[in-house]
Write a sequence for this structure.
């Protein structure tokens, strides 16, 4: 269970929130000019990062406001929380360490060379 | 626009092991939405309600017959403790506020209020809620929107000291009997 610090209501349990997926995905400016593959990339493809990921969250059982969260998907550590429309804060490392030192790409596949 | 003439619970006041559970029926409620950066909205709403709407999260401002409850940065719940002025205020808000920039909705029928009183009320609520009651509702006239088991609720603290604890729970009418049954079970 995560404790998430809603920018409006303060610290609440994760059960009150809904994750809205990856943040800062810009809608293409000219959708008619895109190929089907490019449009599908925009709609469906996400980074699925192991490590630092910027996400949108909604306080669905509270103030119902959207906000952004910078979270390490491997450790569930929340590194920063900021409001919608604000730029991501500068974080010390773009790739926080995973708990067991797994590679950042793949599902714990140690045969992949470590950085 | 009329207020409901039916209570949700058959016995609107029940007492068990020192805890009183009571439904407060026929309370007029208005959902008000507007932009706090709009000075016309703030001043006109303030003059109709005779008090400035709260901009600080999770707070309540009370007037003689009205509670204004913060719901989100652009949304408030007006709860009329005395219903005489409910229809008058509703009509006045519709007249004075710009309909293109605000929303005024009568939600009296949507929710009912369950008042819980007694010395061990906080202890009872802790059995069902994940909310840190001591921290979030540490002062009088504080409010929190949260979940009670799986039910979305809005809870306000009424008491000034711990000796006479009192909370109001705003709950959907369809969830009221479920909430009452759980509370009664928790009193054992």
């Amino acid at each position: 269970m995560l404790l998430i610090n809603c920018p409006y209501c303060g610290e609440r349990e994760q059960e009150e929130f809904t994750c809205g997926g990856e943040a800062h995905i810009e809608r293409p400016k000219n959708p008619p000019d895109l190929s089907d593959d490019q449009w599908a990339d925009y709609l469906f493809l996400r980074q699925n990062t192991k490590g630092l990921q910027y996400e949108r969250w909604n306080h669905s059982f509270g103030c119902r406001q959207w906000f952004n969260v910078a979270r390490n998907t491997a450790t569930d550590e929340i590194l920063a929380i900021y409001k919608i429309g604000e730029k991501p804060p500068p974080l010390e490392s773009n790739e926080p360490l995973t708990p067991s030192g797994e590679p950042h790409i793949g599902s714990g596949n140690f045969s992949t060379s470590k950085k | 626009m009329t207020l409901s003439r039916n209570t949700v619970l058959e016995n609107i006041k029940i007492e068990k092991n020192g805890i009183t559970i009571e439904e407060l029926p026929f309370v007029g409620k208005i959902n008000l939405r507007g932009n706090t950066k709009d000075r016309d909205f703030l001043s006109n709403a303030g003059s109709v309600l005779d008090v400035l709407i709260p901009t600080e999260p999770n707070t309540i401002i009370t007037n003689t017959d009205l509670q204004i409850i913060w719901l989100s940065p652009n949304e408030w719940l007006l709860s009329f403790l005395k219903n005489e002025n409910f229809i008058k205020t509703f009509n006045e808000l519709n007249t004075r506020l710009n309909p293109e920039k605000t929303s005024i909705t009568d939600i009296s029928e949507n929710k009912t209020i369950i008042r819980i009183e007694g010395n061990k009320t906080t202890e009872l609520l802790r059995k069902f809620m994940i909310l840190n009651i001591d921290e979030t509702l540490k002062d009088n006239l504080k409010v929190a929107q949260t979940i009670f088991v799986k039910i979305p609720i809005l809870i306000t603290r009424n008491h000034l000291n711990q000796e006479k604890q009192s909370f109001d729970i705003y709950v959907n009418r369809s969830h009221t009997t479920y909430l009452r049954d759980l509370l009664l079970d928790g009193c054992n």
